Amino acid sequence: MLEFRNFVINPGYFSTQIITSDKSDTIEFELSEKFIPNNDLIAVALSTLCGTQYKNIYMDLLVSTEALEGIKKFTQANVTVKGENLSPPTYKNRTNNIILNFSGGFDSLAALCIMPDNTKLVSIDFGHWFIAEQKFFAKFAPYTVKTNFRQLKYDKASWTFKGIASILYSEHLGGGLNTFGTILEATPYNFISYQRINKTGIVQPFNLVGLTDVKFTHGLTEVGTAMVLSHYKPELINDSLQSLSKPGSEKRYRKQLLTSIVSKKFNKNIFIELTDKPISQVDFGTNFALDFLALYELKHVSLSEVNATVINIPQEVIALVNRLSLNFYEKLNTNFLDGVPKGYRAEFLAKLSCAKIYPYNEQDWQEYREVILLLSKYHENLAKIIQ
Known about the structure:
It is a single chain. With 387 residues, the protein is an alpha/beta fold. The protein has a domain at 2-81. It is 35% helix and 18% strand. It has helices at 39-47, 65-75, 106-114, 131-137, 164-169, 222-232, 237-244, 250-265, 288-300, 303-306, 315-323, 342-354, 362-375, 380-385, and strands at residues 2-10, 13-19, 24-31, 56-64, 78-85, 97-101, 120-125, 143-147, 175-179, 212-213, 282-283, 310-311. Strands 5-4-1-2-3-8-7-6-9-10 form a ten-stranded mixed β-sheet, with helices on both faces. A two-stranded parallel ribbon has the order 11-12. The relative contact order is 0.11.
């Protein structure tokens, strides 16, 4: 059982007591703008902290019947509320402004570079160990939500907590389209066939508040986002690197290595404060994203440099790297082009072209398939997806 009780709701702020079988905490949400989100928006935002981990959920709020039924579907739980508002929600009557969930990291910063100029930025200030991230994204003056739920470890149920700010600000910003800086290798699920890709834009629970998912960065790898930044925001790369992870971390070293490769290959003069190699490494076959990127790294740097993050790389992987060009890592996978609204597509492709990023050609698709087929031998989830 999960309960949300004792709500305090004021302009620009709300809090609630969250009660589980083994603990109780007060979670707070402070908005940079002084307005009160609709109760439905609050309820949907809180549902991201539930995921599908609970059989019974109670929210001490008046919520519309439509939102309640949607939350039940998203959480797959028996959800009850203080009362139901039978009037149809009005907060979906809005324009189609685009909201970007913005952390200031490489991928969301690259997304900003290739998205329309009128994109609305929303960010979450998680406090504590995320202070460096907050200091960097604050430079872009996003609409923010400051909260303590991550410090209290209520971020484990679903990845969708990362979109809480876009949910709470959706009506205020007239948002109809919603996106994250998600890249190709973020999940094996992105490697399903074109025919099976979700082209509806419906992603729970964001659809409950009238937000349609759009995909500006899904077709890019981490190499691609580094190329975008090296063209559009080279002066911000070092600050972004410092904000996203600690020196000596795998993430920091990997992004530093990829940026260095891009800088050298495309004759960019990018300043980076180098960090030490990570203390620990992972075996090949453990982390899909790291393995996927390791192939590109192997193409351009020594095995010892790649072994700083990924070790025990099979000989058949090295042989494949030696045989292929792997240029598709630097290009756009057009399987996700339908996820870019038609009215923005030409501008999107033009911006990528300026950064020397072009759609896959037939050789790229062939190499892409060979790489995925080989990686599927080491990653069961990928093998199931591409069957």
